[in-house]
């Protein structure tokens, strides 16, 4: 699943932007990127560039304000109780995502890295930028690693970058998503409660069992 506005209620880049005094500018870029109106790499570079000079301690301040989406931890616990694996792939930042992964006991994760020099954000990322293609590749890679057929995978997200993995998954779920994402998904959740994912999977399986698939 996606992280920002899916696993958690917030958009971390927007929170960092607020701390940097560029909140509205960054939020506007985020909205356009989520709608698929902007190239994600370019939009990310522009937003991260506005964070140049911020102390790295701002990451701790932002993390303290992050909230797991309602039902997120219960959904993950339910998945684990059934022997399933859970992964997150994010266009956000590993400095925060890794903490969420540890707190929620998530099995797989991938996110962007922020360049930090002498305790200060440089306004650049490090490593390969997570794009819609990366998200799709991660779904395939983790399914293969865990021995799970693609028809038995589930992908959840809310933005344009999530569409390829949602379309490729056995069950693609748009979570409080943009219109284009809802059109691409097999299912749509419109209330911020991730436990509805479990209900969708169970109903999907019942339908296919009755159909003999």
UniProtKB/TrEMBL annotation:
GO terms for molecular function: L-phosphoserine phosphatase activity; magnesium ion binding. PANTHER family: PHOSPHOSERINE PHOSPHATASE (PTHR43344:SF2). One of its GO terms (cellular component) is cytoplasm. Pathway: Amino-acid biosynthesis; L-serine biosynthesis; L-serine from 3-phospho-D-glycerate: step 3/3. This is phosphoserine phosphatase. Its cofactor is Mg(2+). Gene3D superfamilies: HAD superfamily/HAD-like. GO terms for biological process: L-serine biosynthetic process. It holds the Pfam family HAD. Its EC number is 3.1.3.3. It comes from Bifidobacterium psychraerophilum. Keywords: Amino-acid biosynthesis, Hydrolase, Magnesium, Metal-binding, Serine biosynthesis. It is an enzyme of class 3 (hydrolase). The active site is at 2 (nucleophile), 4 (proton donor). InterPro entries: HAD-like_SerB, HAD-like_sf, HAD_sf, PSP. It comes from the Bacteria. Belongs to the HAD-like hydrolase superfamily. SerB family. It catalyses: O-phospho-D-serine + H2O = D-serine + phosphate; O-phospho-L-serine + H2O = L-serine + phosphate.
């Amino acid at each position: 699943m996606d992280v920002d506005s899916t696993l958690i209620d917030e958009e971390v880049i927007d929170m960092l932007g607020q701390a940097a005094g560029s909140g509205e500018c960054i939020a506007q870029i985020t909205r356009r990127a989520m709608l698929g109106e902007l190239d994600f790499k370019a939009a990310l570079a522009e937003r991260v560039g506005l964070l140049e000079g911020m102390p790295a301690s701002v990451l701790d301040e932002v993390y303290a304000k992050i909230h797991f989406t309602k039902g997120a931890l219960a959904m993950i616990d339910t998945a684990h109780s059934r022997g399933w694996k859970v992964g997150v792939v994010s266009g956000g930042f590993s400095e925060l995502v890794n903490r969420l992964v540890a707190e929620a006991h998530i099995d797989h994760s991938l996110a962007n890295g922020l360049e930090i020099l002498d305790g200060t954000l440089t306004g650049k990322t490090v490593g390969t930028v997570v794009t819609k293609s990366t998200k799709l590749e991660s779904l395939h890679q983790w399914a293969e690693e865990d021995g799970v057929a693609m028809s038995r995978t589930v992908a959840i997200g809310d933005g344009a970058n999530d569409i390829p993995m949602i379309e490729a998954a056995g069950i693609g779920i748009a979570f409080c998503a943009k219109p284009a994402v809802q059109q691409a998904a097999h299912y749509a959740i419109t209330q911020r409660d991730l436990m509805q994912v479990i209900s969708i999977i169970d109903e999907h399986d019942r339908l296919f069992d009755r159909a003999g698939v």
